[in-house]
Amino acid sequence: QVQLVESGGGLVQAGGSLRLSCLASGINFRINDMNWFRQSPGKQRELVATITSGGNTNYADSVKGRFTISRDNAKNTVYLQMNSLKPEDTAVYYCKTTRYWGQGTQVTVSS
After folding, report:
1. What pLDDT shows up at residue 99?
2. Which ranges of the chain would DSSP assign to H, the alpha helix?
3. How many Å apart are CA 44 and CA 27, to the nearest integer?
4. Are 33 and 53 in contact (CB under 8 A)?
5. What is d(CA 72, CA 54) in angstroms, rounded to the nearest whole number?
């Protein structure tokens, strides 16, 4: 049974930082590309960042230079370090690999 469990969301002021974590189980973590998505009310879910099994990363233009995705294969965990947060980063953030999604964690950035 595959499980992706996100944590680390919360309320932060604009300019602040948060680090999200996604703990994976039931998969061969080290061979899977891992993704962070987000969804704001009334908007489509969008891809924020990807890290491949080899450690290559890609980011949405809106977060480049502010967010960093990383992974720890020994802990079956993928991270999203979010700095210089803006109110428009407010969303539910989801971890995804292949067809599996986590339950999401809320990030709220106040102005």
Report:
1. 96
2. none
3. 27
4. yes
5. 12
Q: What is the pLDDT of residues 29-66, one digit of tens each?
A: 999 999 999 999 899 999 999 999 999 999 999 999 99
Mean pLDDT within 85-92: 98
Q: Which three-class secondary structure state does DSSP give residue 74?
A: helix
One-letter amino acid of 45: R
Tokens (6 digits) for 30: 């080290």
The total number of residues written for the chain in this structure: 111
CA–CA distances in Å: residue 100 to residues 28, 82, 87, 108: 13, 23, 28, 24
Q: What is the pLDDT of residue 90?
A: 98
Residue whose structure tokens are 């061979």:
31
Structure tokens at 73: 């294969």
